[in-house]
Amino acid sequence: MVLGQEAISWLEVNEALHLEKCAPWDEFNKISNLVKPFLVLFGGVSCNMKSLHDQYVKLVERVAELEKISISMEMVVQTRWIRIGLVDKLAMLEHAIRKLKGNLMDSSSSK
Questions:
Q1: Which domain holds residue 10?
Q2: Which residues contact 81 (CB under 8 A, 6 or more apart)?
Q3: DSSP 28-72
Q4: For residue 106, what are the contacts with CB-CB under 8 A and spacing of at least 6?
Q5: DSSP state of 110
Q6: Is the pLDDT of residue 16 over 70?
Q7: What is the pLDDT of residues 26-80, one digit of tens each?
């Protein structure tokens, strides 16, 4: 009988020790199961934000390149205009005026 009581007390002590050892792990699992969806959600959101930020940076770089190109194209057009002589400029303007007058005459005669 003493042996049986000793065995029961030994089992109770070991079970208590086992529960003490497992209790923090079980608590961790409970907390982990509660927090895990939020961590996964935060990870996905941060990944998407990084992707969107990278796309934004690329678009800004492209816009900056296009602005540089447009400025250089304007300079090319201006230098071409400067290189054209005064007589040529007047001839171009007269041609444009005649073209506009022709368009106006055509539109008034079609009414």
A1: 2-109
A2: 89
A3: HHHHHHHHHHHHHHHHHHHHHHHHHHHHHHHHHHHHHHHHHHHHH
A4: none
A5: T
A6: no
A7: 777 777 788 788 877 888 888 888 889 999 999 888 888 888 777 766 665 566 6
